[in-house]
Amino acid sequence: MTTQTATAPPATTGRKPPLRILLTILHLAGVGVLGGIIFTTLSGLLGTGLGLLFAAGIGAVLLVGLVYALFGVGWFEVARVSALYRTPISPLRWRPRTRPGFSGWLRSLGRQSIDGRMWRAIANFAIASVLGWIVLRLVWAVIWSIAISFAPLTEAGAVIGPFGGTGIPVEWAPLVGILGLAASVAGIIGLALLHRTLSLAIVVRSREAELTERVRTSTAQREGAVRAADVERTRIERDLHDGVQPRLVSVGMTLGLAQQKIENDPAAAKELIAEAHTSTKAAITELRQLARGIHASVLDDRGLDAALSALASRSHIPVVLDVRMDGRCSREAEAAVYFSIAESLTNAAKHSRASEARVTVRLREGGVLWARVEDNGMGGAQVQPGGGLDGIANRILAAGGTFRLESPLGGPTSLEVNVPCAS
Question: Where are the domains of the chain?
Answer without folding.
Answer: 11-205, 226-294, 297-420
